[in-house]
Write a structure and sequence with these properties.
By secondary structure, the chain is α+β, with helices and mostly antiparallel strands. About 25% of the residues lie in helices and about 30% in strands. Strands 1-2-3 form a 3-stranded antiparallel sheet. A two-stranded antiparallel ribbon has the order 4-5.
């Protein structure tokens, strides 16, 4: 009986903590990390802007960008951190 209760609690914890499905191709910022929705409708890390900052030797932040004449698709990516206002 204890095992049955433990199993039920474990299943609730696993199923209860999952996110709803996302739209494949969508992107989002989770902290300073860019995530994209894969074909299985689950969020996956695409880029860690903090790690890229270290490699680029300049501050980068996760931000939403819009398309332009060059055909860039709307979505989230790592961009240079805007300068602080004095």
């Amino acid at each position: 009986m204890k095992n049955l209760i433990l199993m039920a609690l474990l299943m609730f914890a696993v199923v209860g903590c999952t996110e709803p499905p996302c739209d494949p191709g969508a992107s989002r910022c989770l902290g300073n990390t860019v995530e994209v929705c894969n074909e299985k409708q689950a969020w996956r890390t695409l880029a860690d802007c903090g790690e890229l900052s270290r490699l680029a030797r300049r501050p980068l932040v996760c931000s939403f960008v819009t398309s332009d004449d060059a055909g860039v698709i709307d979505g989230n990516t790592c961009i240079p951190e805007p300068p602080a206002n004095p």
